[in-house]
Specification:
mainly alpha, two-stranded antiparallel sheet
């Protein structure tokens, strides 16, 4: 998949197909969220029930990594990452993906943006929970000589997050396309079924690593 061309400009800002696809995904998610929560009832309807099941499942998942209290505290940012990534990944399974519209997570600039937000989120959380001095001390643990390695690791993390998500999605799109051209009968269906699991795994891995990083930043990695 190649970088999408510029569709139009808003002043000095160029808007590509990837950006438009992201706008559409955000609008759809906002609409679904509004529909699911506009009339909350004690006996939920189908959409509210589905939303509550999704929220409970995500809270339990993050709670198993960072504890239930932290999972509830940081649930909005963690759930936002997970839902946006998984929906973006699944958009690649729709007809026209890669030609009519772009798959956001198969674009390096998008995954890099997500990784940068995750990077600053981690440090902001660490400073707020431990204070600036307490957080900076974590970089010299277990002893002072670890400072260079800890700093390198900290700055490598966003590159790892961005390249892992981008590389896996880009590679999956390319492999599916090439195999579909070689074996147009039967195999594309199998690849789409496998992609359903693959796309979910990528969202799980990204948010799992972020939850681990946040747990370390607030001093609860042990």
């Amino acid at each position: 998949m190649e970088e999408t061309s510029v569709l139009f400009s808003i002043g000095p800002l160029e808007v590509t197909g990837t950006v438009v696809t992201m706008w559409v995904i955000i609008a759809v998610l906002a609409l679904v969220s509004w529909l699911a929560t506009r009339h909350l009832k004690e006996v939920p309807g189908k959409l509210q029930n589905l939303a509550e099941m999704a929220v409970e499942s995500l809270q339990n998942y993050f709670g198993g990594i960072m504890g239930q209290e932290n999972a509830k505290r940081y649930f909005p940012i963690m759930a936002t990452f997970f839902i946006f990534i998984v929906v973006s990944n699944y958009s690649g399974l729709l007809p026209g993906a890669g030609s009519v519209f772009a798959v956001p997570t198969a674009c390096l600039s998008v995954t890099a943006g997500l990784a940068i937000v995750a990077f600053f989120t981690t440090h902001t959380v660490g400073i707020r929970r431990q204070g600036l001095g307490g957080y900076l001390k974590t970089f010299i643990k277990p002893f002072l000589l670890m400072l260079p390695l800890n700093l390198i690791e900290m700055f490598v993390r966003p590159f790892s997050l961005a390249l892992r998500l981008y590389g896996n999605l880009y590679g999956e799109e390319m492999v599916s396309e090439q195999l579909g051209n070689l074996f147009p009968i039967g195999l594309p269906i199998v690849m789409h079924i496998l992609s359903l699991l693959f796309c979910l795994i990528q969202a799980v891995v990204f948010t799992m690593l972020l939850s681990i990083y946040i747990s370390e930043a607030i001093g609860e990695e042990e």
